[in-house]
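INTERNAL AUDIT FORM
Audit reference: QA-55
Scope: verify that the stored structure record matches its stored sequence.
Auditor: D.O.
Record contents follow.
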Amino acid sequence: MPHLYRTLPLLLVCAFTLVGCGKKAERLNWERQLDKEEEFTRIHYSGGVFLEDEYNLDGLAIPIEDIHTLLGRDEVPPITETELVPASEADWVPEGDRIAVARIGGKVVGTSFRVMYYREIANLTVGDDHVAITYCPLCDSVAVFSRVVQGEEGPRVVEFGTSGALYNHNLLMYDREELGLWTQMNLTAVSGAHVGTKLSPRPVEVLSHEEFLSQYPDALLVSFSGEPIFEDEYAQYFTSDNLMVPVREYSDALPIKTLGIGIATDEKAWFVPRDEITDSMTVETDAGAVEIESREGVLRVVSAPEGVRTLQAFFYAWSLTFPESEIVQVDTPEVASIDPESDKTESDKTEPETPAISEPKVSEAE
């Protein structure tokens, strides 16, 4: 009997994960063709969350009619308490998996994409450092940030959950204590007591499992021992032009699922396609230099000024949140600005308008 009591919590977590992930898989509409002329329609699935009933919508800063509600609150269960194990001992990681990497409390910590497909948020703590690694499979977007925010009575640690809702085809998180909504792509509270507050970002880093073990032999990995590892149901989605739900204005200045690094300051934003990064690159922003590195099995921000948001993401998702972004292209004399009304970049036009954002300086690192 004591053994049963020790095992029951794990069994309940696994069962909850299987049920939630099964429902998620059933509701993924891989066949939705992208059509810029399609009239936007808000989607609500049976069993999906009712925002007004579940969350603190005070000061809601995004249009409620643009929020799709597909799943129940935490139906995709976030990681809240987990063991960190030596990465070298994690023999359950599937071959070819990617690892999202964060530095937490002086330790290098990774989490597997193939599990994050069905958990999406990992609330982690090492020592006194409280960090979240988040992943939205629909945008292939990774964001890492501190979970400490300034409350009325001083700093507080936020535990984030999955809201069951999407905005701009991207994960909407929520504060599990105060129930305000937060966007992953913009790392900003969009409702509740902290509306307008920006989370403190950490540089994003994504490695193949092999590179992760090679570069960080002493790293820790978020343990999923005993939990299910799912097949990669997103592989087909990643290589198609299909989306799951309708979206508003997006840019087709690049193929929509071009993977890259998004960079945002309080004033400006850039998108750097992965294929434009030849080993390493420096992007000069109004807040300072951002160092990026890309090669086989590696896509990471080496360094960024404090407060500068950096994410891995598909281009279409970044352009939905930052429509005035500039596309960094190192093989042309100009940096192209996004024009949502055209399938061309500004630099392709015969009489280009003055871009809304000044051109950043881009240089290849020696």
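Auditor finding: record pair retrieved intact. Confidence is low (pLDDT under 50) at residues 1-20, 342-366.
Action required: none
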